[in-house]
Amino acid sequence: MERITITIDEDLLATVDGVMNRRGYTSRSEAIRDLIRDAASREDILSQSGECVAVLDYVYDHETRALAQRLTHELHTHHDLSVATMHVHLDHERCLETAILRGPAPALQKLSDTVSTQRGVSHASLHIIPVEKAHTHAHAPEHSTES
Ligand code: NI
Asked: For the whole model, what pTM was predicted?
């Protein structure tokens, strides 16, 4: 291992200490290493070219002008990436949506960015799962018209 010195502002350090206490790390170094590993594995997935599935969650204010239509429009524009969406009416103003997506990781990240940067959208989170085909196999042949 190598020892490095980093400069970090107090608020961010308080966040690191919070993570450390909640997750039971014994040192800041250990906590920071794991946080970097998390970020690195997300970056790794983004650099892969294979097929991925993803879960995109976000909360939005359905009273924000035309936001619901804009979000639906984005998913229709990318219907090739969009598998299904679940909508939950959280309260009088807010809706929670979970969209299941499928496609190349960079395209999924881009769609997620488009959704999460809309004004009125909060708590957006994207979880990408690589689904490389382990092997190929033949499915049952189609029904033959010959008898
Ligand atoms: Ni709703």
From this structure: 0.72
